[in-house]
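Worked example 2:
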Amino acid sequence: MSTGGKRAYNALPVIALSILAGCAIQPAGPPPATQWQTYQERAASLTHWDLSAKVALRWRGGAENASLNWSQANDRSEVDLSGPFGAGAVRITQQGDRLEVERGGDRSAYDSSTPETLAAATGWPIPVSALPFWLRGLPDPDQSIEQLSLQDGRAEEIRQGGWKISYTAYTPAGSGSLPATLRITHAGDNISLRLVNARWALPDQ
C-alpha cells in the first residue's frame, strides 16, 4: 500500500469518530409530553381568535354543507354559517349559558347548559360548549378524557363523552400551529362533522 493510501486508511477511524461525536452532541428535542404541555398552554391562552373554514355535517336526520366564520372573544362565541338549512345565513351567538340564533330576521334565545341545545336551535346535534376547545385541538375541561393520542406534541385524537375528535392536519398560526382539518364523530348517534381549510386570525398576526 502506498504512503498516501496508508494515510487515508489511518484517517478513516478519526473521521468516523468525529462524525459520531458530532451526532452525539446534537441537542435532542423536547419529549412529546413536554411539547403537548407547551401546545396546551399556548392554545388555552388564546382568548380572542377568528376562524374561517368549510364544514360538512352528516347525521341521521340529514346532511348539510356550510361556510363557517367563528369569532371568539373571551367566553363570547359568534358563529356565522352561510349555506346551511336551505337558507342564506345563520348567526349563532353564545355567552355563558345563553345561546341566540338569528335566521332570516328571526331571533330566538335558548339555555345552552344542556347538550341538546344546538340540536334544538339549529338542527345540528353537536355539543356547542365543547367546540371552542375542540377546534383549537384541546380537550373540553368540563368533560373527562376517555382517550388522548398525540402526534408531534399535538392532539391526534381526543375522545370525550362518546365523541371522537380526529385531527389530520395543522396549520401555522401566530407563533405556533392550530388545527386545519378535523373530524368530530359520534358513532352511537351516527353523527359526523368535518371541518377543512381552516384559516386562523390571531391578535398577534
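Helices lie at 3-24, 32-44, 117-122, 131-134. DSSP finds four helices and eleven strands in the chain.
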